[in-house]
Amino acid sequence: MGAGAGADLQLEHRGGRVMAVTREALSVDLASESVRSLNQRLHEATAPQQVRVLNPSGKHSIAVGLDGAHEVEIDGHVGYYCAGMNQHAAVRIAGNCGVGVAENMMSGMVVVDGSASQSAGATARGGLLVIHGDASARCGISLKGAEIVVRGSVGHMSAFMAQKGCLLVCGDAGEALGDSLYEARLYVRGLVAGLGADCVEKEMDDIHMTAVHELLARAEITDIHPSEFRRYGSARRLYNFHVDNLGSY
Amino acid sequence: MCGIAGLYLKSATLQTELGEYLSKMLEQLSFRGPDSAGVAFYRDPAPAGAVKVSLHSADPQQDWDAIGTELEVEFGELSGPNVRATHATFVVGADGAEVQSWLAEHHPELRLMSAGTTIEIFKEAGPPASFIERFALSEIAGTHALGHTRMATESRVTTQHSHPFSTGLDLCLVHNGSLSNHNRLRRRLQRDGIQFQTDNDSEVAAGYLMWRMQDGASLEQALEGCLSDLDGFYTFAVGTADGFAVLRDPIACKPAVMAENDDWVAMASEYRAISVLPGAQDAEMWEPEPGRIYSWSTAAVA
Predict the structure, then answer these.
(1) B117, B146, B181 - which closes a domain
(2) CB within 8 Å of B187: residues ≥ 6 apart
(3) What is the pLDDT of residues B210-242, one digit of tens each?
(4) Which candidate among A91, B161, B174, B243 keeps its CA 20 to 30 Å from the CA of B204?
(5) A77 touches chain B (CB under 8 A)
(6) Does the beta-carbon distance from A115 to B275 stay under 8 Å?
(7) How many angstroms separate the CA atoms of A179 and A161, rounded?
(8) Using an 8 Å Cβ cutoff, are B248 and B290 in contact?
(9) Do B40 and B79 reside in the same domain of the chain?
(10) How many domains does chain A have?
(11) What's the CA gap between A131 and B283, in Å, rounded?
């Protein structure tokens, strides 16, 4: 791959948000190159790469399994599982996503300029997923430690069985939010259509205000105040919660 | 897993491209449904008092001209046969039910795939790519069309098991998903005179819509009934004389995406099927909400 490694970074404002671009970013056009080839290049790279992906055209599995501090910008709408299993890389999608964006992410950051289909951030263990549009059903299902910020609203059964991590929703949440929730933290600014089994509203203390403030800042959302959010969590009546294990939750 | 595509052309100048566009959409969906493919095109209205029928024959040597002659003697045939692979369309001076009962009596070996003023259904077992080529889909013009690629999960792979299923005059259904209560519901509908050609679950959904609408329900009311009477997973697209409608079940496990610009309205199982349309990248796009009916018609988009 060669090009891009060690290139000097330039910060540019686009759509009100800062995005990292580089003069020497490598362009990969998926109209002429396969997704497998793109992913393989990134898997085999020994140094962090800057890549701009053109013509994604809804293709599946773009930029999956990255394991390095790469910066990938995708110009358009993507299909399923984009940036799945991500480790360390920063992936920005200038468009909408199909099912399972950043599913099973381990670390790094995935930013979606548009909206995401269902199961965004499913089972993700670490890193930050920011969706500037809406996310549909089952956003953050079985979340295991990652943080998810949705600028718009989320669909039904979001954070279903979420174990650890955080889902912050600036808009509304659909039916059965946090059903069978474990220890993930949920913050919703708008209306919640309904809480799932064992999910209850909890007090917003200073510690939570600070956490929301920091998360919004990392998601580059500056026009919303933490006090506008309500907090939801597990009532701990459904699963075998034991206070002695608190340190491991 | 199956693939669904729906396309309505708002711009009359694009109507000659309908078949080309739908072919490209089906190609993108072929990996979701490699077992069979089918389409419903809405085009070339039959004159008042006449019906357009689409017939299928399993016999590759089928003498469609002879069928045309018989139809002319019986009903005063107006045009046809327009032969397309294993199918042929005719415009006949009769109504759909008359043609259906005549076929049952004189040509039980032929299947009536669709009847109406503008609808033409073609479907066949086999890979979508060969279906597209064999039926020369890319040359078909029209106002709107639905397509389906099937991955069979619960019944056989035959022409009759393929989608779309006719649900009445100018109406048809394509389905992605699986229904759990179709056997009981089929028996219920059969008692009320709804006929089925297969043991397929999707055909029961089509029969259900037909049953409700024969009873006076509007398409919207019939689709609303699906939410309470059908048990299972579904994304439906229903073709109508002047548009199409979309419904997802309340759990919404089966995907769907919709997009619209000044020239067209499209729905598909995945965006990649919409991405082949001109201007797709900048079209307004959204995921249809569970349990909500979306419909387009000439009146609504004019």
Answers:
(1) B117
(2) none
(3) 999 989 999 999 999 999 999 999 999 999 988
(4) B243
(5) yes
(6) no
(7) 6
(8) yes
(9) no
(10) 1
(11) 19
